[in-house]
């Protein structure tokens, strides 16, 4: 027996749970195929013969026999015209797990075959499935030497995302017919006519000024107002009118809500919990998991433990033994969401302290976004349809599996030929796409994000965020220094929609609010364990989802309010074990793992990060390789194609660092101003940040995505957002210690007494026009 035959026998033995040594293949003589192109037809004919108990060696008139066999087989499965419900018997049979004409004893001996690991668009970890099945049946078989390792190697080629398990119909938009999840009556007010009801602003008089300022310093919000507003207040409905008429399948996944907090104010935290419970149908809410990230506020101790008892275990509280930071606390929450719980959630919805869950079920509903359907219902009663799977390419040398080339953006292609009758594949045409109601993609690898509205930290009224299109819709984005941005929904995305309120693709999420199937989140490895405290995790999970086969969708009909911290908040400094620059280190880890050659653009925008120690990322790169994750270039061309139009790729830097007055201890400082503020002179602190600038080959003097330019009086220097072609008006002469403003032919000047930066006529004798740029490396 050849090596390939031995391997085949071994695979068949494992699939049939048959002892491999007792399985002896036979080689009957059969009619030979006349060419190298007929193997499929011959295989079908032999399979039909075996199904009907015939001897394949008797199949001489192959094609005739095949068609006769197929016709007989097909006619035997075709319902008679007298049958009223031809499929009821089959459905009942399947429901009861019974096969016709087979007794229970025979069924006990018939073990289900583990499916070959391919589901359209998703791959399966076959090894884990077999181990799971083996675990139910007893100890695993000892590994056999020899051949062997080849099968083990082949099994590990598959991406280990689990297959689609549930099939749901898509949501249906019925104009004028109120959706099945819509409230039939207005929700009751927390306090009738009380403060903040209907999300209206609540303003206190000047006598509360000191108390308000103190609460903002401690918590970042106006907690004086918050404590006066009901925890069950009503909120305004900011959704598009069309959202009220969507009808969803009611067999939705149950969800765990994970809420992370650290020294949060009482009413903002509890209003979040109340809002989730109030606006979520109980059947879908498995649990609310509160993760206390090492808070030291008194009201978050025994008072909180006693308060949540009113929900009889629905709300669970876990406390970290040290400050982990928002990123790792979320991963801890994902693990706590199932350990020791009485119910198992199928999805995880991440929230943060201070969020108010918005209209309807917010992210819980998940819109039944896009579903994987193996056979559409409308095909069930059509017997003349032949279905064909998409065929992936298995390399004959190393047995890696890749999608075939030649398809559209989803990899979909139609079968074709050239006029010499050679097989070809052509991308799915726009005409065919227009006929589809679905894209047939697996929902379990989709992460959904609600639209996030802004809750005023002063008055607690709710407003939509700005920066979107005419409907207020925006996609998540970034500039090349990794600052979070929002860009209007593009024409390309709008053309993919059938309705104005269906979910749309976004390159990135803001981070704090999203829903994801629990198993998929764990398959992705949760967050990078090397990310610390806060910052960059939203990009890391977004890139990982997109590049490794998932999708990130914004859901217009799901809205959640978010309170942004106010100026004057003293903040929560990172714990001692974290070290300096955790956010910048996080950014570096993300770009080093996911950005490929695009990381050069990050370092052009953040040159101080070039020498930053960011830790070991070998496991993350191995994950990306083993999961056949796509390149960042693919991601930029297919998903994030519109970002460079809003935030152009930065030019190469000429010089960068602090701009220090020559032989001075004062540096130019943006003072945190953006989009129109004036820069000033301040004591040099060598910490970068607001004192870190760069001048590039495009003659832009920049800080992050902002450029320095002359002010309206063409004297004082201000900072403003710019693209690649704007404010290209500076030159730096390093040997002369001079910056010149080319449009006015003047020089950069300063007054350290008045802390001002301006341009004035060039004078080689003026010491205040002399500068030096000194590199600053983050540690």
From TrEMBL:
Cell compartment(s), UniProt: Golgi apparatus membrane
Phylogenetic lineage: Eukaryota, Metazoa, Chordata, Craniata, Vertebrata
Predominant subcellular localization, coarse grouping: Golgi
Annotated metabolic or biological route of this protein: Protein modification; protein glycosylation
Superkingdom of origin: Eukaryota
Classification via PANTHER family: N-ACETYLGALACTOSAMINYLTRANSFERASE, N-ACETYLGALACTOSAMINYLTRANSFERASE 7
InterPro entries, alphabetized: Galactosyl_T_C, GalNAc-T, Glyco_trans_2-like, Nucleotide-diphossugar_trans, Ricin_B-like_lectins, Ricin_B_lectin
Protein name: Polypeptide N-acetylgalactosaminyltransferase
Cofactor(s) listed: Mn(2+)
Keywords annotated in UniProt: Disulfide bond, Glycosyltransferase, Golgi apparatus, Lectin, Manganese, Membrane, Metal-binding, Signal-anchor, Transferase, Transmembrane, Transmembrane helix
Record GO biological process: protein O-linked glycosylation
SMART domains xrefs: RICIN (SM00458)
């Amino acid at each position: 027996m050849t090596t390939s035959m031995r391997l085949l026998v071994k695979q068949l033995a494992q699939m049939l749970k048959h002892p491999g040594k007792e399985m002896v293949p036979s080689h009957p003589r059969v009619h030979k195929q006349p060419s190298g192109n007929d193997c499929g037809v011959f295989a079908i004919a032999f399979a039909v013969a075996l199904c009907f108990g015939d001897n394949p060696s008797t199949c001489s008139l192959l094609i005739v026999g095949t068609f006769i066999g197929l016709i007989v087989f097909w006619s035997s499965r075709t319902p008679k015209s007298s049958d009223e419900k031809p499929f009821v018997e089959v459905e009942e049979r399947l429901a009861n797990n019974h096969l016709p004409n087979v007794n229970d004893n025979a069924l006990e001996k018939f073990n289900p075959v583990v499916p070959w690991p391919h589901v359209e668009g998703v791959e399966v970890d076959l090894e884990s499935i077999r181990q799971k099945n083996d675990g139910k049946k007893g100890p695993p078989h000892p590994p056999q030497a020899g051949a062997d390792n080849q099968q083990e190697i082949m099994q590990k080629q598959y991406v280990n995302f689990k297959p689609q398990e549930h099939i749901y119909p898509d949501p249906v938009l019925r104009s004028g017919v109120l959706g099945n999840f819509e409230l039939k009556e207005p929700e009751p007010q927390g306090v009738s006519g009380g403060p903040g009801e209907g999300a209206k602003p609540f303003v206190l008089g000047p006598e509360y000024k000191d108390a308000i300022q103190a609460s903002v310093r401690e918590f970042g919000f106006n907690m004086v107002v918050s404590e006066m507003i009901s925890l069950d207040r009503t909120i305004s409905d900011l959704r598009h009118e069309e959202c009220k008429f969507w009808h969803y399948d009611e067999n939705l996944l149950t969800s765990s809500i994970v809420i992370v907090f650290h020294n949060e104010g009482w009413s903002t935290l509890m209003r979040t919990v109340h809002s989730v419970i109030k606006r979520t149908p109980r059947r879908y809410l498995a649990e609310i998991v509160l993760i206390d990230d090492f808070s030291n506020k008194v009201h978050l101790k025994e008072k909180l433990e006693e308060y949540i008892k009113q929900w009889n275990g629905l709300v669970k509280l876990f406390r970290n033994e040290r400050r982990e930071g928002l990123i790792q606390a979320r991963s801890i929450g994902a693990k706590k969401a199932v350990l020791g719980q009485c119910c198992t959630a199928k999805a995880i919805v991440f929230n943060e302290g201070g969020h108010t869950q918005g209209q309807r079920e917010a992210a819980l509903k998940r819109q039944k976004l896009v579903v994987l359907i193996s056979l559409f219902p409308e095909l069930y009663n059509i017997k003349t349809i032949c279905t064909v799977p998409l065929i992936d390419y298995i390399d004959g040398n190393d047995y890696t599996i890749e999608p075939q080339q030649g398809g559209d953006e989803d990899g979909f292609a139609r079968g074709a030929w050239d006029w010499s009758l050679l097989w070809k594949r052509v991308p799915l045409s726009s005409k065919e796409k227009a006929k589809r109601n679905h894209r047939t993609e697996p929902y379990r690898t989709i992460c959904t994000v609600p639209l996030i509205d802004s809750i005023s930290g002063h008055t607690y009224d709710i407003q939509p965020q700005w920066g979107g299109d005419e409907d207020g819709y925006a996609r998540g984005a970034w500039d090349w220094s990794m600052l979070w941005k929002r860009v209007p929904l593009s024409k390309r995305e709008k053309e993919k929609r059938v309705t104005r309120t269906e979910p749309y693709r976004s390159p990135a999420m803001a981070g704090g609010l999203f829903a994801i199937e629990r198993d998929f989140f764990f398959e992705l490895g949760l967050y990078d364990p090397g990310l610390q405290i806060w910052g960059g995790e939203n990009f890391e999970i977004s890139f990982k989802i997109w590049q490794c086969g998932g999708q990130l969708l914004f859901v217009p009909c799901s809205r959640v309010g978010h309170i942004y911290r106010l100026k004057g908040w003293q903040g929560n400094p990172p714990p001692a074990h974290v070290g300096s620059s955790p956010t910048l280190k996080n950014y570096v880890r993300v770009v080093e793992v996911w950005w490929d050659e695009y990381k050069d653009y990050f370092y052009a925008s953040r040159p101080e990060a070039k020498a930053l120690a960011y830790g070991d990322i070998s496991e993350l790169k191995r994950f990306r390789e083993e999961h056949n994750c796509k390149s960042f270039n693919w991601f930029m061309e297919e998903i994030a194609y519109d970002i460079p139009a809003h935030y152009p790729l930065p030019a190469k830097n000429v010089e960068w660092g602090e701009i220090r007055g020559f032989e001075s201890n004062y540096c130019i400082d943006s003072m945190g101003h953006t989009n129109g503020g004036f820069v000033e002179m301040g004591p040099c602190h060598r910490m970068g940040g607001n004192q870190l600038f760069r001048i590039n080959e495009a003659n832009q003097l920049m800080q992050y995505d902002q450029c320095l330019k002359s002010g309206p009086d063409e004297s004082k220097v201000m900072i403003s957002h710019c693209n690649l072609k704007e404010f290209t008006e500076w030159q730096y002469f390093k040997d002369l210690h001079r910056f010149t403003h080319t449009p006015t032919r003047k020089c950069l000047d300063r007054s350290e007494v008045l802390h001002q930066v301006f341009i004035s006529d060039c004078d080689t004798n003026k010491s205040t026009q002399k500068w030096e740029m000194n590199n600053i490396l983050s540690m």
